[in-house]
Amino acid sequence: MNSLQSYLLLSSLLFSIGLAGVLIRRNAILVLIGIELMLNAANINFIAFWRFGPDPSALTGVMFALFSISVAAAEAAVGLGIILAAYRHSRTTDLDQMNSLKG
Predict the structure, then answer these.
(1) Which of 12, 28, 30, 80 has the highest Cβ tally under 10 A?
(2) How far is CA 2 from CA 9, 13, 38, 74, in A?
(3) What is the mean pLDDT of the chain?
(4) All domains in the chain, ordered by first residue
(5) Residue (of 5, 14, 15, 16) closest to 49 by Cα position
């Protein structure tokens, strides 16, 4: 019952939700959550193509997904650090109001 098409449909739906969150939201934390959703959609693609590929014993998709998860964790930590520093400076997380990078 599980086919490659169903995983790709799930992944595209998750990516679309994340993209909509990035484009519509103005809160910096919600934009970061949208980016994380898009990265998770890419991880689903990695695992699906590995699982339904010609050689699922090679574990290449799993390695790509683990690498992507570690990069996403680092991105979230750096992104939250930047958001906290910008919040301390401007006292808001609204991206429209954080348009000045002057010190």
Answers:
(1) 28
(2) 11, 16, 22, 32
(3) 86
(4) 4-90 (1.10.287.3510)
(5) 5
